[in-house]
Every structure is written in structure tokens, then in C-alpha cells.
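Transmembrane protein: C-alpha cells wanted.
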Amino acid sequence: MNRAQMEDRLLTWRFELRRTLGLPGLLGAVLLGTAVLIAVATPRVDADVDSHELRDSERLARTPKARRADAERAAVVDAVSLHALPELFPGFGQSADDIATILAQARDSNLTLGSAEYLVSNDSSAHFVRYQMLLPVKDQYGVIRRFLALVLNSVPNAALREIHVERPTVDGNVLDARVRFELIYRAAQP
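Answer:
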């Protein structure tokens, strides 16, 4: 078989494969063939022996004294972090500004708002004050979702506590939703 015959047969196979599989099927077959070649060509690594040796050497290198020192350092860092955590939150005096920001985000999103309910809870042993805001909204799903994202991105001490969504009519795209935000503030120091 000479070169011209070989080219003719390859061209015929290509046209037959393209006719039966289509262009996407042919490209998929080429990609699968390439993936099989790569999988066969990559060398197999015996990871079990190497990883066991590394674990054993690490275990031997760490003495009980070093582990105890690591635990003490971690305890000190945790204590400092817990002590500084309340200072990272704003004071309760900022609550009016945060609620104004949430309502402004709702107005900017053109949401239909109902009357909101507010609840302040303060645990005497806690370092935080929780301000809950239940806000009934009415609009399309995408608008409500965008509003939630805007609030959570613009008010860092806000958490989405609950969302309840109802569709009043089966064929309607306007949803009734009740959104409960929880705003967390630093408790006043006695």
C-alpha cells in the first residue's frame, strides 16, 4: 500500500466517523483517546511506602515536650482571640445606621416592603447584644436574592438568620418573603 492509498483510506475513515458521530462526537473521541494516552503514560507512584516513612520520622521528631509547648502556645492565642473578639464588633449605637442601610438597600432594589418587626436580646453573661429585624418583602426571586447579598456585603455585623419564601399564585413570579436579619453588637462595658 503506497502513500496515496493510505491517505485515501484515512480520509475515508475520517469522513465516515464524522458522518456517524458528528463533529462533537469526533472531538469527544479524540479527547477521550488523549486522556487514555495520558493516563497510561503517567508513571505510577508507590505513595504508601514514602508517606509511612515521613509520618514515622515526624512522629519521632516531635517530643512530648514540644507537643506540650505547642498546646500552651495555642491556648494563649485562643485566650487572646476570645478576649479581643467583642472589640471587633461595633457598639449598639451603630444599630440605627445599620437599619437605615438595610432599608436603603431595600429601596435601591425597588422591593415592596411591609412593616418590620424588631427584637433586641441581651444575655447578661454574654458580651454581645443581638438585634433581630424581621422584614417582609415582596418581589421576584432574583431581586430578593440581590437585596440579601447587598445587605450582607454592606453590613458586616449582619447575619441572615431566616428566610421564608411563598409564591401566592402558581403561575406568578412575584414572591412573598419574610427575611430575618440578626445584627450583632458589642455589649456596653459596665
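The chain has three domains: 1-42, 52-86, 92-186. The first strand starts at residue 112 and ends at 113.

Cheers.
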